Each structure stands twice: as structure tokens, then as C-alpha cells.
Predict the 3D structure of the following.
Amino acid sequence: MNGGGPKKLVDLLEDPLPGVGTYEDFNTIDWVREKSKDRDRHREITNKSRQSTVALLRSLSDAFSGWLLMLLVGLMAGALAGGIDIAAHWLTDLKGGVCLIGFWFNHEHCCWTSNETTFQERDRCPQWQSWAELIVGNSEGAFAYIVNYLMYIFWALLFAFLAVILVRAFAPYACGSGIPEIKTILSGFIIRGYLGKWTLITKTITLVLAVSSGLSLGKEGPLVHVACCCANILCHLFTKYRKNEAKRREVLSAAAAVGVSVAFGAPIGGVLFSLEEVSYYFPLKTLWRSFFAALVAAFTLRSINPFGNSRLVLFYVEFHAPWHLIELAPFILLGIFGGLWGALFIRANIAWCRRRKTTRLGHYPVIEVLVVAALTALIAYPNSYTRMSGSELISELFNDCSLLDSSQLCGYNLADRPAGEGLYTALWQLALALIFKMLITVITFGMKVPSGLFIPSMAVGAIAGRLLGVGMEQLAYYNHDWLIFRGWCSPGADCITPGLYAMVGAAACLGGVTRMTVSLVVIMFELTGGLEYIVPLMAATMTSKWVADAFGREGIYEAHIRLNGYPFLEAKEEFEHSSLAVDVMRPRRGDPALAVLTQDSMTVEEVETVVDSTHYSGFPVVVSQESQRLVGFVLRRDLLISIDNARKRQDGVVSTSQVVFTEHAPTQPPEAPPPLRLRGIMDLSPFTVTDHTPMDITVDIFRKLGLRQYLVLRRGHTGRRSAAKRGPPSFGAFVILFYRPVVPNLGVPTPTR
Amino acid sequence: MNGGGPKKLVDLLEDPLPGVGTYEDFNTIDWVREKSKDRDRHREITNKSRQSTVALLRSLSDAFSGWLLMLLVGLMAGALAGGIDIAAHWLTDLKGGVCLIGFWFNHEHCCWTSNETTFQERDRCPQWQSWAELIVGNSEGAFAYIVNYLMYIFWALLFAFLAVILVRAFAPYACGSGIPEIKTILSGFIIRGYLGKWTLITKTITLVLAVSSGLSLGKEGPLVHVACCCANILCHLFTKYRKNEAKRREVLSAAAAVGVSVAFGAPIGGVLFSLEEVSYYFPLKTLWRSFFAALVAAFTLRSINPFGNSRLVLFYVEFHAPWHLIELAPFILLGIFGGLWGALFIRANIAWCRRRKTTRLGHYPVIEVLVVAALTALIAYPNSYTRMSGSELISELFNDCSLLDSSQLCGYNLADRPAGEGLYTALWQLALALIFKMLITVITFGMKVPSGLFIPSMAVGAIAGRLLGVGMEQLAYYNHDWLIFRGWCSPGADCITPGLYAMVGAAACLGGVTRMTVSLVVIMFELTGGLEYIVPLMAATMTSKWVADAFGREGIYEAHIRLNGYPFLEAKEEFEHSSLAVDVMRPRRGDPALAVLTQDSMTVEEVETVVDSTHYSGFPVVVSQESQRLVGFVLRRDLLISIDNARKRQDGVVSTSQVVFTEHAPTQPPEAPPPLRLRGIMDLSPFTVTDHTPMDITVDIFRKLGLRQYLVLRRGHTGRRSAAKRGPPSFGAFVILFYRPVVPNLGVPTPTR
């Protein structure tokens, strides 16, 4: 500060250059640096606020900007989710027919306006005409069926085509579920544009189209992406969040909670999802704010009322009968099924995606989508359970049969529930639907359209669960004198709830695929509202996770992260072998010596040579080449920007100028060019470990502090490893570092592999 | 390992001595070391499991021991909570009268067995006799009233006396709520016996007595302590948890969730409470296990069915009317009240507790309890709202008035709710009860009996809320043409629910006192089960927290931690000033030089002199006194144990033996005594920061990694601070460190104050 060199010194400390301290695309942020930047900012505002009223007001508005932002995110995401629901509902119905009094009405809406509808036949009214009625004037017979069939396929293809074309044209990042990428971004990686406005617009529109096209995908995962886009865009309104990557990620964590909250109408489950599944850094403050945003979003969605029933979700259920302890056996069976299906699905899907990536299949995404959409529509139409949308199917499967229910699934002969003809037909159709859904989902997830995995997974589980449930029910009906049924399941009593089995199955399959635990159970709990059903859900989810983990510990999102080569340090992973930092650090034996900068004995040109001849993201600064004691750490990007800037704007800085990282420039001959002072961009407190630190502790530090790099210091004459003897002069600290990989396709997602 | 010194060398590395690696009482554990120990253990078991089937089975049983432990904790804590509920209910009723058909029946139970009871007058049956009836054969009139009054006081005093005497005699740690201490223990501190079997037994019994004595305290906080004691005791069954302090704390975190789960019948809320309020290290695995344990406990409690209504809690509520947006204004008002009350309560209570600690008041805990109990009973009896137990009061205040309700609070004149005579009386009594509860709770919390704060705080808030609620209701009734009521509150409509106000008030007050947020809202949500009431609860809790924080950021538990001088590093605290590690590290300028050990040039006697002349918990090991480069760190306790042991058991180790921390002992003259090799107890990877590291980052590292100490290294010729020039020879790493304080009464709870 009190620079006293022989010439005017330019100090970078006080006025940081634009660009210094920012990150390049596909780079990892330094959490510690970002958080400490934010603390400094906060401290400054607090200090100023004591000086004037204006500053005090500014400090208050700064403190409340986080809440305001959360409110806005909740409102925006809730409104978008409502819009998506309404639009998807309308387009889905459009595949079957059109409303004569206004084509923009969906089926249900259309018939509301009609007076001729009775309660029993809500779905039928003259205003709503199927395509066959409209085109050939006839709704019965084989010909009409074929016309409807063809129109269904036509619309499905049209929607799918529009979806994939829009994604390709405007925002390639809009495809997929987005959760793997969001996990990576939240862990500190930067993917510019992934959460931008074009992605948001494109994803919103194409999500509606993709869902309506009847493909085996859901809107729940992409809703998380949409919510995160909203949050990222709204962050630009507030300096605090615009300029700080760590603070912005707090908001994104909350947005992930908002996404699940609007997808399932489960604010608490959403927050736990964010905490358990996607977030990396989740301080308690974020917990509370996430909860706030999730609630705002849920209530925004409810006031839009997209389903017309004041409910937050399509498949709200109310069960009346309690479950019996013996039923835990089938529930656990469902858990095993869910786990097996989850493990199998992940393997098959990853294998298929890898094939897409490596073979020519990947070059024709539009054709792929069209073929899959055509196949789906072709097979799905004849079976009423695959023709309806995924969430409608789940809703129907979860439903408990009341006496008035006209659904085929409730086709019992009598009130005391022997299965009737209708139910047997339904079971056959369900079994076929199960096989179809299982196969088609594997090739659907990962295509270049927005596609969520929650609904298809839940659908598979719900079908399996319902089948098992009806089986148990009939077993109990015909064998109520068996020991296991005696005492709690008398004939005629309504003792087994197939809908509950469907729900348990759905949870098990979703759990097997995503490996969610607490959040899944809480989401399901929020759907039913009954604490007693938590135990079956928990038993199934737990079994499912254990079974699936036995085949591989990665959930589908982690598998996709690895497939795409994103750098992601999995918090749950444990180390098998006990290695020390010295075993994994670079340079290894035989590598060229570590590229370092010295604190006051290199010229600009020499520094540039070091930087140009390597690809490292940063360089340790040491006292001198002989005495390699660590002084600090400087980032490549900051270094380049500063040198460029100095050359352009500072008088006298030339290639022979000395680069000085110390506070006082060393005395130089009077004719020398002015030195370039770079202490301001140097990190004076780089993180270090000793070379004897076990790797698991090192990785723990990486995870918990969110570091970008770590220097390994070697000191003392331990003599344990010959490497130590080959190192630089044996006194003095010394050095190396390992980075998180910087390029996403490096295929080395953690620094230790 | 391949020690090749001139004489037989004893290597401590392979066979750790008993005691090495353990902690003394009132010490802080090293999380990193504990976790790394557990990882080594796990790795060893995994490796062995590949060799034989027995080892595989052992590895599996090891993996599932965590779940088994959770199951046991849930069962035990649930059963204990059920027992406490039943016993407290019985003893509380005993203050009023006795059951003739069996003194062990409580009032309700007694009248169940009677056939003469009608539904309307469930509470009255000839079998249950008040003390006046029993003693003077008359239940009416002033004399009977006085007899009952005196008997009430007698029982209250008896229970209180037994409670305080038992606590003093058997387990002094059983007093208070226990949550501050559990927070401290979970953060890594060791208080032996705090979670032991005597504490458990004493706390369980005295909790029943204290609650029954009518003192203004609740059983919810102590239940957390009871659950933690169960967990700690059960940990002894499993080596994995018995031997590892970090693993045991994971179980204790889950037990805290179990405690809240059984206290409120809110498993999700319990888990969030543990996460938000008490836990320090809460990995995701713990989240899932806590949830499991909390559910097991809740269902155990329900199958015990202590309240006889299949509900988990005494105050289950169901509201029917929705709330209106305008009502947010009174809800926020309640939030402000709750915040003010919380801040005031904390100040008053801490002032009172400090007075107890510092004046002679503290010498007479038994008399204090008796005086407060007498005072409470004396004042409480005449007012029916203070006479009933805290949870009964809250239950009544939360209740929505139905038409059949005979409670005084529902004393409306007509169905359309103008207040009647009875209601006005009730309001007066409530107002008096409010003042009484506010005052008496301040002096009750902190006495030497088990005492929870949840119920008294909630009672204060519920009374205030109910008063405001009835006020709003009457306002709306008489002024339904006002602009704010028009449109949603027509005359005769039941538009305002005073019970909801009570609930919001309770949440606000509890929030103000404890500063809980998410967990509080979720607990309340689990009580009502309706998502729509979350918004009022959230608004009030948020306001309450903001208001209370404006007067001081500490909740009651943090305040008590500070009062008792426990070492606790608050995760939420932020630093005001920007200091560097160099500013706070010891030794400071003018202090004597840092006490260090050298790696191979000190004798046993010299080491003992260094250890004896200081009180530090550990010592850095450096290369030599001249070149103070850091080699490792050794703990005082480990050092003393090893030297003692070597002297007793190893031939030739005498005071002049050399202490060697290097791998190979230096060559010595042949007549020298054998060296004492201590490399095995040295930490080869002590954590270090540079002296330029900002304090907030340093504190962050402490919090996130759970460290016990950190070494501050000073290197390079930075010359920034003159202190650097006064340091040891300026090349080479250098040193030291700040500890977490070790003695609880040090009054310096964080290393930075």
C-alpha cells in the first residue's frame, strides 16, 4: 500500500481489472474465494450503513434482496409450471379430438361449458368431437377407429418433430432432464448458457410439445431445469447474486426445490430433494429460503389451478383402509422389483446412450425422435393405459376404487370384490403396458428432447404395484381362511388397497432409478397426507435402494454425469485403497519439474513463456527457483488478463519488465523498465496439505470446502519415499497441486482418478 | 517399519497402546482423525470379507449394525416416551383426586371403566373422587375448595421435592432441557456421563415428577436428552459405534430427531430439527437413518397409545375454514409479539441464570425449586387455564369450537358467534394466565430439575394468539360491513378460526425463543396436516425470527451454551472484522516462544520438561530448534501415555533416552540408552494455514472439517508485518496454532474470541 519503490508503481490491489476473478466457461469455481468475496462485500455494506441513512437503506435492501429474489423465483416458476400444465393438457387432448366451441379448450373444459353433460359421463358431450367425427362424420366402426389412430400418430409426430427441431435450432441445452447438469453446476462447474433465457423459452415450449407427443417421458425433471433457469435469469436483477457464483448457486439450490415443489405439489419434499439429491453447498439459510420459495411456487400453481380441482397435483390420493403388518412382505417384494428395475434401467439406458454417442445413431437426432415417437404412438394407441398420459395413468392406478367408480380397474363383480370380467381385461392390458413402458423408456430417456424420468419410472412401478395389489386382493378374497389373512381380512371386508400397492411400487421404482430416499418418501407422504402410509413406502424405498446399490452405487443422474464426463466429486463415494497425497500428486517421478513463478526475479517475458508452455490453470509463486518456499498462488486467467492490460495501458511495461509479487519491489538499476506489480491478483492463502495426508482426508477437504486446487507441501527429512529425495532442495516447503479437470470431456471426473 | 537402528527399536505404530487416540473428559474430539479411523476400519473389514464366508457375514452384520442400532433406539425411545406420558398423566391427575377402583388409574381411565358416564360428561364419574370428597366427604363449598387447593399444593411440592432431590442424589446432569449440552456434545465436545445410564434413569423419573408438579415446564426438550441417552447406551452394543466418537455422534444426531419425533409425533419435523438446530456433522446417510429411527419411535409410541385416541400427540387439530389474505396482518402481529417475547425471555432468563450462578441463590437449589413450585401451585390453582397442564392448555387453545363443545372458550351466545358471558370470563382468565406464564417461565427454566421450554413458550404464544383470534372474530362479527371484512366474512359465517391464531401464536413464540424455522413450521404442519396453514405459520415464524434477531442473534440454547462456557463454534455466526490468521495466532508478540518438540534431538527428560511447563494439548514436532520446519503434531495425552508406558514396560528407556519421531533413529554412540520411538503417535498430516489466511476462511475450515487445532505457517519474506521479522529464522515453515479451549469454564467458547 505504501509503495516506496524507485519508480511509480502500479498497484493492482485496489482497483481490480474487469475479468480478474471471473471464470471461463467449463471451469470450476473456487467456493472459498467466492464466499470470501461475498463476506467482504457484506462487511463493506455493513460498515457504510453506519454512516448515512441512504447507506442504511441500501444495506437493508441488500439484506432483503435474497427474500425478494426467492419470492420472484417462486412466482415465476409457479406461473410457468401452471402454463405448462394447461398447455400440455390441451395439446394431449388435441391428439384425440377438438372442441367445436373453441379449439383452445381441452376436453374437460369443453364439456364443462356444455349443459348436456351428466356427472356420470363427464367426458362425453356433443361439443367435443373426435377427429373421426369431424372428418368422416362417424365415431363408430373400424374406419373411424383407423382415422382416429392415424390422427393420433400424426399429432404425436408433429409435436415430437416441433420439439426436436426447436431444441436444435434455439437451445441445444434444452434437451434431457437437466438434473445431471444442474447437479454439476451446483457443485461449482460453469456451463454458460445452460440456464439462460433461450434455454428457458425453448425448454418451456418444447417440454409441452414433448409431453403432448405421448413419448414415454415426464415433465418433472425438466421443471427443475426450468425453475433453475428462472432463478438464474432473475439473479441478474441483483448485484449480490449476479456477481457472485457461490451466492448464485445458493439461489439455484432453492430453485431446484421449487421445481420439485411445483412438479409434485410437495414443498417439503422439494426442499429435501434439493438437499439430498442435487445440492452441493446447502447452508441452513438456503434451507429456509428454499422452503419459502417452494411454498410460494406451490401456492402460485394452486391459484392458477391447472387441474381444475384445487389440488396441487394430478394424482392426489386418499386411502381409507389401514394396512396390515403382513402386507410388508409384498411391499418389500415391490422394493426388490423396483431395485432390480432401477439397476437394469440404468445399465440399459447408459449402454444405449453410449451407443448413441459413439455410433452414427447420434448424427440423426431428429430422425431418432421421430422414429421413437412413431413407434410409441403406434403401439400405445390400441391400449387405453398407454394411450393416456403418464400422469393420468399413475393417477388412475393410485386411485382407490369407490362404489361409483366406472373405471375398468374397478370392474369388480360385487361390492365384496371378486374380480370381474372388466378387471381381468384391465390386468392384461396393464401387463402389456408394463412391458411396453419398460422397453420404450430405455430408449426415450436421453433423446434430444426435454425428457423427465420421474413419471415413466413411477408408471412402471405403479403398474407392477397395482398388479400385485389386485393379486393380493383376490388371494385374500378366495382364501380368507388362510392363516395369514385370518383375523384381519374377513370375507367381504375391503382389507387390501391395490392403490396403495401402486403407490408403493411407484416409489420403489423411482427410488431404484434415482436412489432418492428421504425426499422420495416425503414427496409421497405429501401426496397422500397420511403418516401411516410412510412405513410401507419406507420399507419399499429402502429395499429398492439396497437392491439397486448391490448392482452399482450410481443413480441415473450420476451415471449420466459420468457418461458426459462432467467434473463432479460425488459426496457419497468412499475410497477403497489407502493412498497418500504423495501418491497421486503431480508432477510424478519422471515428469518435468513443476512450473512455478518466482516472487520477484522473473520478467514479463519469462512469465509468459512459463504460461504458454503449459496448460495449467494456475501457478504457485515461490521465493526463488533455488528456495522453493511457497508464497502464494496465481491463476492463469488472472495472470494473462493482468499482463495484457498492463501492456496496453501502463506506460513502460515491456517484455523485460520485472514481475513482482512482493509488497515492495526490489531495488533495480535506474534504467530498468518499471516493474509490473501483481501482488493484487495473487492468492496469499492457498490451501495446502502435507504429502503424508491420506487421500480420503484430502478428498473430504475438497468436498467440504469446495476447493479448486490444493497444493501438496513436502517438508522435513522424512525420507520415507524415494520421491522425497528427488524433490527440489530438501529444505523449504514444496509443492504441487492437483486440479479438478477443466475440460468437460476429459473423462476424469474427479481429481483422484 | 523396516527399522534398522543399531539397537532393538520399539515401534508404536503397529500396536497402539490403550488410551492412545482416546480423549479426556471436557475435551474436543478431532473429527478428521475419528472419521479416518472409521474409514480404515471399514476398509479392513471389506478387505477381509473377500477371504472367507465368516468374514463376509461379519462385514454384512457390520454394515447393518447401523440400521439395527437405529431400530433399537427408536423402539427404546418410543417406549420410554410412552411410559413418561402415561406416568405424567397419572401423576398430574393425582394432584386433583384419586380413582377408587385402583389408584393407578388416571382420571380418564378411571371413568372409562365406569358405565355411568355419558358422552357429555366424560370427566365425571363416581369412581373418581377429588381429595375433598375423599377426605371431608364433600365436593362443594369453600371448605372443599380449600382442601383441594391444599392437596394440590402438597402434591406439587412433593413431586418437585422428589424431582430435585433425585437429580441431586443420582445424576446432576439430568437437570435442565439438555439441548444446549447435546448441541455441544454433537459439535465434538466430550462430557462423560452426560448421556449415561444414571442420567437416563434419573431424567426419566424426575421428568415425570417435574412435569406432574405443575411447574411451568415441558417434557419435549428433555425427551431429546432421554433419546440421546438411549442412543449412547445402545452404542455400547456395537464396536463400530462404541469406539468411534464421530460415528457415535451420527447416532446421537439421529436420536435428537427421535426425541422430537416422539415429543410431537412429527418424524419429518424431528429430522429437520436435528438437522437445523442441534447437529453439527450431518451427512446424508444420517438423514435417512434419522428418518427411519424417528418413524420407528413414532410408531412405537402410537402402539403404546398413551393418549387413548390413536393419535401421536395430545394436541392434534383439524381446522375446516380457510384463512383469508387479510388475516396475514394479525399473523404478522403475532410474529412480532413472538419475536419480542423471545428476545425478552432470553435476556431475562439469562440474567436470572447468571444471578443464580454468581450469587448465593445458586447454593440452595432445593429450596429454590420448592419455592417456585409452591408459588406456581398457589397462583395456578384458582385459574383453570393455569391449573391444567401445559399441553392440555395448548390443546384446548388450538381447538376449533364445534357446536357441541362445552368448553368455556366456546361460550358463544349463538351459532353465529357473538361472544357470550362465558367467553368473556375465559378471556380474562387467559389474560391473567398469560402474564403468569410469562413471568414464571423465566425463573423456572434453568432450575435443577428437568425442564423443557417448548411447551411453556408455546403456551404463551397460544394464549396470545387465541386472545387476538377471538378479538378479530368479534371485530369481524360486529363490523362485517367494514371494507376489510366485506366479501369474505358475511354475518353468521364462521370466517375466523381463533384456534389457528393460537397455533400461529405458539409457533411465533417458540420461534422467537429457539430461532427454529423450517423444522418448526414442519412440526406444526405435521400437527395440522393441512398444507394451506403453512403460509400463516411461515409468515409468523419468519417475522418472529427477524424481530428477535434484531435484539440479539442468539437463541436460548446458544445463550445457555455461552452462559455455561461450553466450547461451541456457532455455524451461523459471521465475522465483523477482517482479521488474518496472523492477528489471532499464538504466541503473540512478547509471548514466550512456541513450545515445540524436535524430531530427533530431545531426550525423554527434555520432552517431559516441555510438557510439564505448559498446558497445551499438543505440540508441533519440528526438524530442529534452528530449522523449525514442521514435521508433525503430537497430542499431549498420547505423549504422556506413551512415555509412561515405555518407562514401565520397555527395557532401557530412561530419562536420557532420545525421543525419536523420525522413521529411522539417528546413529548414536553405542553406550547410549535405546531411543524411544514415537512416530506412531505423531500426526503426519497436521492441518495448516498460511499466516495470511483471512479469519473467516479459517473459521470456515474449523466448522466444516471439525478440527481440533490448526497450525499457522509463516513462510516467505513477505515482510508485511513486523511480527514476521521477529519470528524464528525467516526461512523454513513456521508455526502455531490455536486450540479450541479445553476447559469448559474458560469463558472463551470459540478459538477466536
Notes: Chain A touches chain B through 77 residues (CB under 8 Å). Confidence is low (pLDDT under 50) at residues 1-14, 716-753 of chain A. Chain A has 27 helices and eleven strands.
